[in-house]
Amino acid sequence: MLERLNEALEHIESRLDQRIEVTELARIAMTSEYHFRRLFSALAGLPLSEYIRRRRLTVAGAEVLAGERTLLEIAVRYGYGSGEAFARAFRTVHGVGPGEARRTGASLSSQPRLSFRLVVEGNSSMRYRIVEKEQFQVVGRKVRVPLVHEGMNPAIVEFIRGLGQDTLARISSLSDQEPAGILGVSDNLDPSRAEGTELDYYHGVVTRAAAPEDLDALVVPAGAWAVFESSGPFPLALQHMWRDVFTQWFPSNPYQSRPGPEILRTRLSPDAATADAELWLPVERTAS
Fold this sequence. Notes:
By secondary structure, the protein is of the alpha+beta class.
């Protein structure tokens, strides 16, 4: 898997001055476009689109300093429709405009080329199971919130605090299948998974029951789910579990992610310092 991902990185590098199709990168990696975006983001620590942008502007920066092409020629070569658009993007990455950089020989930033390597630690194992589920509903209350990679999500915390015990008890009573109880369900995430992008967050239950009119519902099609278990400090252990699933489990197993919500079942300790959790991710087997 990592070998194919590195082949996709080579494809990016050879076409920085051309249009790069994510569908082609996914084909090289022998996975779906959806899974490729998510796996790249988890492994690289930044979205695919941002990596490509930074690499292009790194190479463009070297050409600006070389002075062999006009700034407009460089802008067009790397996909910018105008000198102004190129200058804005250039300044965002390098902290200085291309004209000033050329005049003064300013120091520029550099996005190194990535390559993925497997690091085997061997000091822990990941508990998981595969579950096939028929179509079901998530029923509860929904809010649109920004994505937070580390620590508590203030928007979600505030949203849950405002629901009230009566509403939570009524939602909880609708739970009639696994995963049981009140859940955190994330759906409709931005493909980049960049910090600050928005997602739909449901505080609800998995149920076959019809949703009351005053509650929100999300219909989830039938399919396979990979279920991961974790225990540790809250919320850090949960966020590390998501990271480890994409950086360790997916590259080592014949599955890829498929479109659908992420479901998190969390049981906090009395002091809320630690938690036992299950993470449910929609998956499908990869072609052999």
